[in-house]
Amino acid sequence: MIIRHKDPSEPKSHEITPESVYLKRRELMALGGLAGLFGALPAWAHGFSPVDEDGSRPRWLKDQVAKAREGQPDVDEALTPYKDVTGYNNFYEFGTGKTDPADNAHTLQTDPWTVTVAGEVEKPGDYPLETLLEGLTLEERIYRLRCVEAWSMVIPWVGVPLAALLKKVQPTSKAKYVAFTSLADPEKMPGVKSPFTGIDWPYREGLRLDEAMHSLTLMAVGLYGRTLPNQNGAPFRLVVPWKYGFKSIKSIVRIELTESEPATTWNMLAPGEYGFYANVNPEVDHPRWSQSRERRLPNSFFDPNWVPTRMFNGYEQVASLYKGMDLKRNY
Amino acid sequence: MKTRYWTWLGWPLGAVPLACLVLEAASGQLGPDPAEVLVERLGWWALVLLLTCLAMRPAAQLLRVPGLVVWRRTFGLWAFGYVSLHFLAWATLLLGWDPNYLGEELGKRPYIIVGLLGWLAMWPLAATSTRKARRRMGARWGKLHRLVFPAVILGVVHQSWVQKSGYGETLIFALVLAMLLIYRGLKDHRLSNK
Questions:
Q1: With an 8 Å Cβ cutoff, are A290 and B34 in contact?
Q2: How many domains does the structure of chain B reveal?
Q3: A301, exposed or middle or buried, with CB in 10 Å at 0-12, 13-18, 19+?
Q4: Minimum Cα–Cα distance from B104: chain A residue
Q5: Rounded to 5 degrees, what angle do the CA atoms A39, A43, A46 make?
Q6: Does B1 map to a domain?
Q7: What are the pLDDT digits (tens) for B68-121?
Q8: More confident call, B1 vs B125
Q9: Which of A151, A299, A309 is the best substitution to test chain B (most B C-beta atoms within 10 A)?
């Protein structure tokens, strides 16, 4: 099932997941029909339907996103509506409140975007995003996203497996880990500028090379058939569906292949609460709250919509990566 | 002390945040996880109102508006109301009074215990908030009402413990509390030296 927002009249694949396609079509109609209205009332409408920057993205990126093909795996759970996916975010560079990113991220300049590839690779260098994605076919992947704060969403991402990108830059035999770095621009990012953040910017994340090469690991440039809105980590972010959301680092400017385990932001801040692996695991509680279940968003006052949290967020195919490891210790 | 004609305004003033929250909730503006937001905001306002309550005597003295002292009771009771709603919303909307989850939260999460103790410390204060009780208790009333200090300290500790990162807000709460405690300490000191 592919979301092509450019041509909503095109027949949808009802036969696969009728319910979510139905849900999505409502989103598309809302987007198309209300875009003009909301454009006229941006301040008032902000809380309901955050503005995205799809219209101002470079042609090549929009075209590539539009040509995305259906990718596996799929989930038959209801998608989280576009306005919630793009209006309720953790992107601390733009503030710690859930609506801060949607309110503040409009200042982010995503074109041109250069990604520095460094470390244990045959082809290091500063790559324009366009060059990095050249010749690659994007896929739509519908993934569950489980936040470490015990809420979750279901999001149709558009992206390319990280493995395909790494193949381009050719990791050397010494490469054991992939380290990612986000943009940290105090001029544009109030959270980076704030003296009270407690976070040592830039935001950093990392994966073991075999995790990075796993076919589920995605580098996303879009969601809901459109380019990524700024608040979702435009123009280029990681999505690792079996790990807590904070591993899926946003607005990446640097990818480094390393021999040793890279330092990661939340682990540096509170090592007892956030590990390097951060695999979704209902058996291992966060010291301050239970991880055994999650509130699937959106929910309501009358129903918090608790669903049981699954090992590896339900992506059991990754279990073999951790064979023989004590996941209670390596949380 | 003579009560000024405007002092009743404290009651509707304390209701404003609650009214805003109810309006936002009813119009779906609390976002995709509204119960979580509601619980958090109720707790935030409880702390702000409790600190406001404590600030009333210094404010009355410094601004020379003695009538403000009446608002200690107004905002103290509102703070108790907001903490109670904070607890009820947490237990009802988030946990559905599920005994297993309630037991787990209370047994395993120290910050919940800290918050709960702060709330419990406010019960006797709310129960003895009437003029009648104050008259009846005499000097013991003042002693009992010093419980407000452990309550607010526990509240600030609870608030700081909930944060994932970013201590700006906690710092402000702690700073305001410290100033109020120092002011109070100086006053007490001066009184005991007289």
A1: no
A2: 1
A3: middle
A4: A290
A5: 80
A6: no
A7: 999 999 999 999 999 999 999 999 999 999 999 999 888 888 999 999 999 999
A8: B125
A9: A299
